[in-house]
Amino acid sequence: MTGETSERRRVLLAVCGGIAAYKACEVLRGLQKAGCDVRVTMTQDAGRFVGATTFEALSGAPVATSLYEYPGSAIPHIELAEWADVAVVVPATANVMAKMACGIADDCLTTTLLACACPVLVAPGMNVHMWQNPATQANANTLRERGVSFVGPDTGRLACGDVGEGKLAGVDEIVEAALALLVPHDLEGLRLLVNAGPTHEAIDPVRYIANRSTGKMGYAIAAAATRRGAEVTLVSGPTSLPTPAGVRRVDVESAAQMHDAMLVEFKDADVAICSAAVADYTPATPADHKLKKSREHLDAIELTETADILADLCGCKGKRVVVGFAAETDDLLVHAKEKLERKGADLIVANDVSRPESTFGADTNRVALVGAGGVEQLDTMPLADVANAILDAVLQRLSR
Ligand code: CTP
Which residues are catalytic? Predict the structure, then answer.
């Protein structure tokens, strides 16, 4: 979240009285991890499952449980509703959904929701029969028609022992859906191809040549673009990262596999962002059996250059936008400008991997955006913000 979106991070978590209320704690944490400021309102029944003290400690702010007792405000429902950029109801019970659909405001949570003019996300969690009851379905439809967003419910084993639809959506899915409501959908209709992570170049069935890339930057770009409405395909080298919600992921191992996958996927893409740390060299003929330790075997490993994916995409890009990365330890801008020209990219994102804030595996990055028109040096920022800055630069180039 950057620029105009940077201030839109205030999430009102509305916790209702269902067994899945404990999951609201994890949702709160997930939102905070993504840079959001979270405040909580909860029903009296929610307090039977998780105490207000827990939410108070986690959010670092008073929890609104009553319309008449809220530290520092005489009218908490209006203050919270005006404060929030998005409201997330977790878990949404059949009762609260019914009240929302009818405009009933008989406690702090429902009164606050009624006063909310911001986007509202509902994450239902209840028994399968309660969810499938025509009354609940009608209420859900009424809310959808009024612009309320839904995430879940999923199908699975429910707290009551029944199996069916009604299970609260996954924590990551709820967090992603909330974040998507905080940003403009300015990439709607855009097909974005991203590659990320290292490649593994086989020496034999046991050993490979790799690098220190974790894939975090590319995954952050894929997640940010999905939130902003793009259709994203992520071609990923071996990483331990979970697939961001809504992203189509194609797994590859070697530079050659990544090259093939990228060229196939680029046919249906408007933009390609090559953040992967692709091996420049690969063993020419990997052994089909494990090599025994010997100087002879080591000396016999012949390396051959891999195909340059970025350069090949640039060679057939036409009017499409292609972005590359330059991970350097010295003369950052000189190398980045040289790569921009040599590969024919629209933009090179350059970072100094010898610095702690922009090294492999960091949760921040400090990059310079190097284009034909000049260099834009950005501050050290969380990866999600860097991702959005790169996407902003892509959008500018697309509209040119
Ligand atoms: N890249 C690629 N295919 C390769 C190698 C690199 O697409 N076989 C892409 C990377 O994804 C990145 C950019 O090219 O976007 C990095 O440029 P590159 O010149 O390969 O960087 P280095 O490997 O660091 O090379 P050098 O040692 O020349 O700086």
Answer: 160
